[in-house]
Amino acid sequence: MRFSSENNVNNFLKILKQFPKEWTIIQLTAPYNPNENLKPFTEYRTEISSIYLTLLTNDYMDHTDIEPFTVEVPANITKVGEKPLFEELYSLLIENYNTIEKAQFLNNKRLIKNYWSRREDIDLRIKSVINVMYKEWLGGWSSLLTGKFEDSALREKVIKQVDTAISDWGFIKLTSKQKTLLYNLLGSSILLSSQQIKSCIRMILTQHGNPDEVRQVLTNCESCSKEFRLLNELCFECLSECFEKIHHFNIVDGIKAFSDVATQIKDGDEWTALRKAKRHPVILIVDEMLDTFPWETLPILNHQPVSRIENIHFLYSLYKEHEDKIVDGYFAAEPNIGRYVINPDKNLERMELRMSSFVKYWCESWSGHIGEPPPPEEFLDYLSTSDIFLYCGHGDGCHFAKGAANGAGVEGASGRTTALLSGCGSVRLSRAPGRTPPSGAHHHLHIASCPIVIGMLWEVTDLEVDKVVSTLLSLYVPSDAPVDWKSVGKAKWSQGLIETSIEQKSQYSPERDLLLAVSRARGATSFTMIASSLVARGLPVRIRDK
């Protein structure tokens, strides 16, 4: 990472310290694979044996005075008879695409029944992918993805509980890295299973200690060498033996010491606040090889404010561009000016009726184009002058700005807008022919300084997406509408008709944190395949307090 001509590491650390203190920044990276230069992407994309999870900023790093560090997590480990996780994900995405693509040709009951059967099967498969990611792949390491507590007293309480166990058991030689990992794990233990916790404790105690101390006590072993680079290169027997020589406890006692802390936190009445504790935003820097995975819908993250970004350079650029508008870790947005483009290709009639009826009801002051494409310069003007821009159509819609700004297209906008693109794969990374890096609409919009872009990772169906998008906007955008959108009658919504002469069925609970609104909006559909497709890319955004 080059931020200047010299002292790259030092400058990089300085840049991390410039970011808002509320942010947790985590990088997910796949190891380099030389086959990237030899094979087609469709072949080497499944050749991933591990991922690197790098903590750049974290709730406990200041306490332990530790710089960014990396944990290697095994990946693609499968049980006998199971398809490797990467292979399964890409396989189901292909089937999802084919199923949705052929939906327009359904002309009898048998085909319709088969279509819904395939949709249900695909949904079960994506649920299985998420389950394997969480329980068998990341396990306890998923605790490293969580954000900082809004209530710092909870953080101090976790530190005190873990430090007490360290002191009581006499683990005086634990490294700062081990302590940081234990704080994160046990601080999230209320959301993890006992097996996930114990397995992760074992790896923290044996694989993340001081390598020099291990070399001093490592005995001869046929499969291990003192010339190791990383501790996880050693066999478990050697790691356990070295742990016992260094700490004067066997590894079983070590696991028991900290799993007892986890049990106290999981079962103790005084820790119930931890389960629903509010957290500050998480920003995931996701490697292009891992970008297709639905990280935000992992059980440990799905109720937290989470966004993605391409790399640290984009994050820093967006942050510096909008630094004067960032308050308490959030881009302070206005909700006043809204623009929309709905069904510009004129071939999604029911979607047009649904979404036009929604914006006219909930976002009455907004303006835009319905059933026709805007001129390129007007599309660009929407991105430059609106607080919120909604695109409902095929793909990401950015092609409608082609030729504007002397050929710059959407990159010629001067964005401050929250861009919501509801088309299939609207924020997917796509690869041009050859060996060019993948790109997406969000790249161009970030270059135009749009602080956040929300869209879909893969193919979706319009009715379910309309439910999600309308729910998201109704949570986030203030409205003078007489009845909460959740309570509005929608029996004839696909005809453009909504029923408002009804009693309020539920207490309206708005969400001005856009990332939390995204999280809540996923619940508007019963299809996990649709919900997990929705992601936010960019800075955390929240409507400015009046």
From TrEMBL:
Keyword Hydrolase: yes
Top-level division of the source organism's lineage: Eukaryota
Enzyme class, UniProt record, top EC level: hydrolase
Peptidase C50 domain location: 335-435
GO molecular function: cysteine-type endopeptidase activity
InterPro entries assigned to the protein according to its UniProt record, in alphabetical order: Peptidase_C50 (IPR005314), SEPARIN_core_dom (IPR030397)
Protein name: separase
